[in-house]
Fold this sequence. Notes:
The complex is a heterodimer.
Chain A: E1 4-15, E2 20-31, E3 35-39, H1 46-53, E4 61-66, E5 78-81, H2 93-103, H3 110-119, H4 133-146, E6 151-155, H5 163-180, E7 183-188, E8 200-205, E9 208-214, H6 215-220, E10 223-228, E11 237-244, E12 247-253, E13 263-265, H7 269-278, E14 285-286
Helix pairs in contact in A: 2-4, 3-4
Chain B: H1 2-12, H2 21-29, H3 31-60, H4 76-80, H5 84-100, H6 103-121, H7 123-128, H8 134-164, H9 169-172, H10 178-183, H11 187-206, H12 209-230, E1 238-243, E2 253-258, E3 263-269, H13 274-303
Antiparallel strand pairs in B: 1-3, 2-3
Helix pairs in contact in B: 2-8, 3-5, 3-8, 5-8, 6-11, 6-12, 8-11, 8-13, 11-12, 11-13
Amino acid sequence: MTETAIEAAALTRRFGRRRTAALDGCAFRLPAGSVCAVVGPNGAGKSTLLSLAAGLLRPTEGAITVLGQAPAAVRERLAYVAQNKPLHPQLTVADTLRFGRELNPRRWDDRVAARIVAEGDLAPDARIRTLSGGQRTRVALALALGKRPELLLLDEPMADLDPLARHQLMAALMADAAEHGTTVVMSSHVVAELEGACDHLLLLGAGRVRLAGPLDDVLAAHRLVTGRADASLDPHTVVESRTTGRQVTALVRPEGALGDGWQSTAPTLEELVLAHLRTPEAPALHLDDAREAAV
Amino acid sequence: MTTALSATAAPAARTPRGPRGLVWAVLRVHRTALVFGGLALAVATACLIWMYAIADDARRGNVPCAEPAHDGFPSCASVEAITVDNTYADGIDLLTAALSYVIFPVAAWAGGALIARDLESGTARLAWTQSVTPARWLAAKLAVPAVLLTAATGTVALLGVWARQDDDPNLVGDWYYPDVFISTGPTAVAYPLAGLALGALTGLLLRRALPATGAGFAAALVLYNVLERTRENLWPTVTRTEAGGFELPRSAWQMSWDGPTRATRAMYHPQSHFWPLQYVETGILLAVAAAATLTAFAVLRRRTP
């Protein structure tokens, strides 16, 4: 029924007295069932975007719809894990899971939550305040997955996990999402964390959408080219170019066949993201057929 | 309806009994406060029952006496040998004061631990991204403590009235003492409720636990003192003017006294004004609580989608 998980149009959110925009006219569309990476430097607006999608903030301008409705109307169908993984420190692990059960009476699945917790060897009677950061992340994720959400919003979910736990939790997350067709939106500034897990990319910079679309399409739209420094890259869009001696290496969006003088390879996700982060003035690219608001 | 019942019947068999949903969550998250409150209630109940038990002896130690004993008066030495009246008077005094000051810890707790800590640490957002709207979250946060506070302060106030027995002012204080006045009527319940609402509002406005604790306490302090100063004006006083001098009974709460130049003029509240004064003050307190609660909901609605 809902083919679109999240749709944003001219989404703007300002904070503070100076009204600085954390998000500034964002437009994108995320199809249901995708696993989307929200990437960007610190302060790019990733957390603000996820809070807006979770129905915790009100947009200053523009609109965001989640699962076809206003975010606050679909509270029951989405789960959100905030960056600092807030949990009640005085509760035990078992009570924290009961918290999820009591507050989600129509959706809660005890087995899913209990399995995530058990995989981390957490004692059910351990208090949250005695847990390490990574263990708390695990409990927070168990609380989110136990809700059986249709949309899972994760703000920097893996930041304080060791590589083993990260790998294992990511696998559990992806298996769960694939099994139930959950849409997952994960923010991160560690690109390596997302590679291989995501099929959709949303790159934010200074509150604006820089890149949006299916990961394969975004990657296919770019080439990493090497050639002589005096050769012209017209009419291709150059995202970033670096000259070393008489040689130039550039990330381009080809507008047709590249000339003979160029050696081209497909960029990795990391190369793509880094090139865009280094050149904030590079033009944005939307491959997600977002209905651009007339702005 | 039957389908809903049968659907919930199966898991209910193994889930623990007792409160469910948000009520459970509020009780569990604030279990420390609940335990402290329960302990305070138990101690106050036990003390008041003890006071009631020694009340008769205390009255025997607080009677007119003569030295040596004559005309049916007991000897003063024998009366002074009875010390239980001091225990009784001190105990009643302490519990009366404690009940009238419940508003202060309640307001500080409501501002800090109940609301602002949840907002500061992000656990409020945790609740709001379960299947719970912010308005329901706040409603539960206010209703659960309000019900428990009403039950607890109501119990202690009624036990207090019972332990005071005949309200002998030599033992339990005059009705118009601020502590006594607050603790012996519906104001005993209304003050903590107003403190709860004011604290919750400061918590929502400040969103940080430590400042909200202080501000909640300060708001309660202001309310308490304003009402203490204006209490005598909450109901019209009785004016008694007579040529020559006269004396007001001890039970009269005297506001002013002129004379005796040609006539003596006294303004006072007779003891019969206790209930009108109680009703007006309780009404003011409940109005403050209602206004603070409505403002709190309005602030929350403005802030969340």
